[in-house]
Amino acid sequence: MELWNYRPDVYDRNQSLDLVGYHVQATDGKIGSIDEATYEVGESYVIVDTGPWIFGKKVMLPGSVITRIDPQARNVHVSRTKEEIKNAPEFDEGAFKEPAYRQRLGEYYGRFPNTF
Length: 116
Known about the structure:
116 residues, alpha+beta
């Protein structure tokens, strides 16, 4: 499994589940809600609006950091702490679809245990 793919035991590509609007739970609490989500193989990620938690900052999380989806509660759980997410490279709205930006972000998230 790659960093930019959803875990097969968490997200089934054959279902039409849209994660936009879901609340995001880090390992140590809520961090915000999903503004955008992609589902392409090798390019799956979510953009999270952190609201006032880190001053309205948005963050991009690779699909593989999602560990559980609860459709009834509209929650997505990720395998990162608030601090790890807060310290991630700054979200760049103009470059987040570029391979170089995803590579830099992937290097950051890929260094933590339990990525895959």
